[in-house]
């Protein structure tokens, strides 16, 4: 239960009590309950970590991106096109940065092969069929291994271009 849901219920309770004792402030509590109820069901931000629109020029371009719209929280990476939508490749900044950048560029250049492997993976693992690929993380010390994040809630791995279920 979210804070706004709790506030909504609390305001409703106070409105009922005030109404029962014929205290005119009950209407104010009803308005507050409506406000908090609205905030509880309407998220403040989009649920996706990806921006609503991405200009095609951004595909294959390594840079710093504000994925959640917060310019103070930039992520190094690039976008590729998979499953008919943009997928962010996150690049960890460490001593292997150049190798990770090359891997990201390779994933972009070979995105058709990656798409074909993804389709095969989805056929073999139907639990992921109703999910969409959210991002690919090039974070592992093993440079051949990548993390794959699914929306909603899912985590698998990639070894090279092959998708594998995390063990």
Q: How would you summarize this macromolecular structure in one to three sentences?
A:
By secondary structure, this protein is α+β, with helices and mostly antiparallel strands.
What does this structure look like?
With 167 residues, the protein is an alpha+beta fold. The protein folds into 2 domains: 3-41; 56-165, no CATH class. The chain is built from 4 helices and 7 strands. Strands 1-2-3-4-5-6-7 form a 7-stranded mixed β-sheet, with helices on one face. Strand 4 and strand 5 (145-151) form a beta hairpin.
Query: How many E-type strands?
Result: 7
Tally of individual domains:
2
Q: Which overall shape is indicated by the principal axes computed on the Cα atoms? A: elongated
For the residues shown, what is the average pLDDT? 86
Share of helix, binned: 25-40%
CA-based gyration radius: 23 Å
Terminal CA distance reads 32 Å
Count of helical stretches: 4
- Note the main sheet: 7 strands, mixed
Major sheet strand order: 1-2-3-4-5-6-7
* Low-confidence segments: 45-52
Structural classification: alpha+beta
| Share in β-strands | 25-35%
Give the topology string: H per helix, E per strand.
HHEEEHHEEEE
List the helices and strands and how they pair.
Blueprint: H1 3-20, H2 26-41, E1 63-65, E2 75-82, E3 85-91, H3 97-109, H4 111-124, E4 132-138, E5 145-151, E6 154-159, E7 162-165
Parallel strand pairs: 3-4
Antiparallel strand pairs: 1-2, 2-3, 4-5, 5-6, 6-7
């Amino acid at each position: 239960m979210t804070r706004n849901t709790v506030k909504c219920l609390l305001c409703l309770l106070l409105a009922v009590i005030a109404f029962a004792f014929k205290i005119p402030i009950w209407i104010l509590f009803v308005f507050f309950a409506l406000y908090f109820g609205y905030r509880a069901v309407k998220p403040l931000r989009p649920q996706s970590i990806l921006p609503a629109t991405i200009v095609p020029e951004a595909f294959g371009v390594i840079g710093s991106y504000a994925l959640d719209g917060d310019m103070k929280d930039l992520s190094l990476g690039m976008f590729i096109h998979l499953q008919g939508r943009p997928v962010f490749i996150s690049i960890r900044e460490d001593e292997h940065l150049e190798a990770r950048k090359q891997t990201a560029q390779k994933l972009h250049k070979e995105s058709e092969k990656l798409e074909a492997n993804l389709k095969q993976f989805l056929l073999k693992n139907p639990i992921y069929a109703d999910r969409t690929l959210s991002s690919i993380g090039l974070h592992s010390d093993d440079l051949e291994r990548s993390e794959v994040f699914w929306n909603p809630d899912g985590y698998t791995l990639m070894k090279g271009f092959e998708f594998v279920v995390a063990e």
